[in-house]
# Entry
Amino acid sequence: MSNTQDYQNIIDSNRVQAPARRRAGGMALGKRIRDLRKNKSWTLDEAAQRTGLAASTLSKIENDHMSPTFDVVQKLADGFEIDITRLFDTETGLEASGRRSVTRDGGGKLMETPVYAHRLLASDLMNKRILPFRSVIKARSVDEFADWRGHQGEEFLYVLEGEVLFHTEHYAPERLGAGDSIYIDSNMRHACVSISEQDAVVLWINTA
# Structure
């Protein structure tokens, strides 16, 4: 498609969902983004320029009409010049040296999309160099990804339950079962889909 904005609008429309319900113990990502933008006195267009996202995309996120992918969340954090964990918590995290964080079973901050359900672990710590997630892989085909692409950094994935097929742009898809792992440069386009009967569960670690 020759028009980049038209292409972006098609991608955006493929990601639109019904308004998300707010979960107990969590927070609405859309409200957090809106509050951050207003605190900086940015218009939607100004925020779009800062984040590299379309203004229409930001509007949908702010109104909980769209579940952003991890790549989009990273762009939001970069654009607002904050640690990614601040998008999931309104409280100030611990930043002292000699830090530690314990996340109990079922804890962490949940970010759910049509293809993944990421639960950010150690979410009380700010300015981490790694971002650990316990992720449920809901996707069954790369066709379910409106836009799968790369981002900065490196990442490690370890399969806890089920089986996945991990796709990267330079290699053939890799089948991984429980106990298997993969480490990649994140700038390659990549996507992960479940191929087991039940949704696979993985430990997914990204550099911040």
